[in-house]
What does this fold into?
Amino acid sequence: MRWHALAATILLTFLATLTGTPAAGAAPDDQSGIDRFGACMAGAKEGRVLLLVDESRSLAVTDPDAARVAAAKFLTEQLSTYATDTGVSLDVAIAGFSDTYSERKGWTTLSEKSLDSITATLDGFADRAGGTDTDYWLALDGARKTMQSGDAPTCRMIAWFTDGKLDFTIRSSADKPYAPGVSLDTEQDRKKMVEAAKTSLCRPGGLVDQVRSSDIITVAIGLAGKDVKAADFDLLKSIATGEQTSTGTCGDVRSPVPGDFYLADDIDELLFTFDKLSTPGQPPLTNETGACAVKVCDSGKHRFVLDSSVGSVNILASADRTGLTPVLVSPDGTETRMAGDKQGSAEVGGVTIAYDFPGDKAVAVRMTNSQAAQWRGAWALVFIAPDSDSAAKTKSQIHIRGDLTATWLGGKNTALHSGNTVDMKFGLRNGAGKQVDPAGIPGTASLTTELVPASGKAISIGRDIPKGRIAAARSLDLGSVAPGRATLRMTLSVTTASARDSDGTLVQGTALSPSTVELPVTVDPPVGYPKVDAKLDFGTFEGEGTTTATLKVTGPGCVWLDKTTVVAAPDGADGLAISSDAAAKDSCVKVVDGASGELTVRMAVPTAVNGDVNGTLRVMLGPEQAGEQPIATEVPFTAALQKPLNTTNFLIALIVGLVLGPLIPLLVLYAAKWLTARIPGRALRAEQIQVRVDGSSVMRDGAPSLTRDGGPSLTRDGGPSLTHRGRPLAVRDDEFVQLVPGTGSATRRLDLGGILLRTRIGRSPFGTGYVVATAPGLAGAAGRSGDRTGATPDARLPLAVHNTWFVLHDPRGPENTATVVMLVGDVGRDVIDRLAAEVTEHLPRVLPQLRADALRNLPEDQRPVAPSGPGNPFGGGGGTGGAGGAPANPFGPPPGQQGPPQQFRPQQGPPRQVPPQQGGNPFGGNPFGGNPFGPPPGGPRNQGGPGNQGGPGNQGGPGTGDRPNPFG
It folds into this structure.
């Protein structure tokens, strides 16, 4: 299908982007945005990727099969593999945008364990195509905030997917932060809104420059379609790459290259586009050829040669028509046919081969175990047609991960001082971190090294150094390098050793994509000059006014602030000023040798705004020795500005309302509270677990119903059990799988299968609303707090019910049995286990309190009767049948039990009605009646004996209240 092809293309483009091969339209620079990100990751070993996905209603037309979801899931799987292979720590977050920005999943470290929860979040985007706008500004501003949250690493990238241009839907109301007072009532208003968003994004120092100057790389992918033209993405292309397009230029920060743009015309291209992003800093090898008829042929081979310098191989390949069979040919001629549309695996000469089919014409292959004998040699991938028609075109992107990376051997012992010349020694390490002799590489290798100071002009250390001379020391002249931050860049190029295939034909070695490592370094001032910190952070400042930050100074010498350059600032921040009392040599901060001091810098914010301020400080460093000239260093600074919560307007409105009439503010407050009292529209999973509390222990699947000795026991499905099967509370792998229906948007009501969650605003007009969980005949309490409301009582939960739990209990039944309901969002197993631990810790305290509260409000004739003597096996008074002495009925369900709430299984249509549990004996209640010496049939009717007043339908069994007991 056309759309499956697009998914393949975007994925490959995404992987190639991460690997560093820019597609047509990428920034014309010697390094792409993905190259930058990969090189940064190789040096820092940690980073972040935000998947920013369009949710506008146009996707229902441009991507009806949700190929964007398949491509994004494939990307996360490949990134997980990349993280595992390279040993980097990669965090992923997921957000959607349209007329709003919504963070769908917070930062999660990508691993095999977290992959399921990440892909489950992506699955939710298949149904998210109802947004009214395609608002680039809200998307990028939201991404900026997400990227800055928490302890943000240096390496950060936004992978931005959309199917359309910046646009808005005409409607009666609009409130955009970049266009205050602009409505969307008419077509003219819509055009004004587009222009306002574009201006705020692209003006010098605007939102785009805020993102770029924060070293956040943007990779944008446009999905073109029947009604979408390539030119519709010109603004997005300018935002990502800094290139000039039909919409003009966007932003002033264009060096280093800010990012990449890729256009996908169909689903295969979509997959291939995303695939380009899957191995940052290691571009794939691309090839296009034909197919073979019936059997393997040389003309259809996508060849590659492996040796010991290669760690693993990932291939994404496709044909331009369906019905072809991909075949992997090993060096000894063994053919691995990957037929069908299901994933599979094989082993050839010790090499492990795993494959899958992300599209109906695409195959993804992974090869591992570089120690196997068959690993070394000439391999090939071929597409075979089942008949003589081989007129097909095939293409491949082969990611061959080199097992070798360059390293600076003197990093811990070599000081870089401006004005000096230092010896630099480099080496190679394998994937296990062990040093490798470059001369022993089977094929050819060369290394290029350079220092890139803050000025951006690279200083060469060595270019194309052959493998036999990589270990030799080389000189780095720092005579013209100013002190401050710099980057040491090392690029290794490897070509595998040539080999003969199974037919004896010599196949030239494969030139692997160059692998680049970038290490942040600091060039210190010359000896005798003071040093300052490499960066100044003002932190977060709210409102207007003045804030300060300090720059640490280490002696000897004198330091002062000479000049400030603001690179980017939010709308409305005109007049923002940076200053210091130490603004000249006469007022400098003086520090003696070995001591430290502080240079205090002020930032004056004239107007409260939202956004980031980035720029540089030109700091002068004066030497201790008289007569020497001061030198300058550039120190980057940053600040996050926020508008304070506007409480003044609220208080004024409240006072006016109280003066004009007491009802007005109350109605306004109640209305506002009601409007916001909604369960958030995020993915939610629920599980109901039957438990039993034994002292301080909580056991599951063993809630009492009937044991052989007459004690209560209850199975997981609510039926009677003849054994006591309890075990400590723990969550199984097959639980929390299905989503609760109706959570795609904010709601006031959810049905968990017999358990209803409803929002309430309460009596007070202040505060926030809450959620009440109700189940017929059961009392409830919320989690660790035990919060409850009403006479029953019912569990009272916060509006954000995600990652909480509550307990349901039948006060007429055994005192130590209950149903625990756990509600989780898109979280990892660690959060679920934490909730289970909370249940174990707090339920032994919450359950007795809940039962006591419920019994106080229970009618006298429904309360369990306290034991008064030995149990009557025929159902009379006394006995030990559970809480309060309620005797067990050997022919019915557990005393006082209605059966557990229906287990939650999401379904379509209205909730399934669960009939009352009948469980009574065929004689109608207790066949022996209550007291055999009691009143005759015309007297008072038998109610099943004290303590046998169970749930509905078990009040002495069906028919007990309608006819006399023949024994009573």
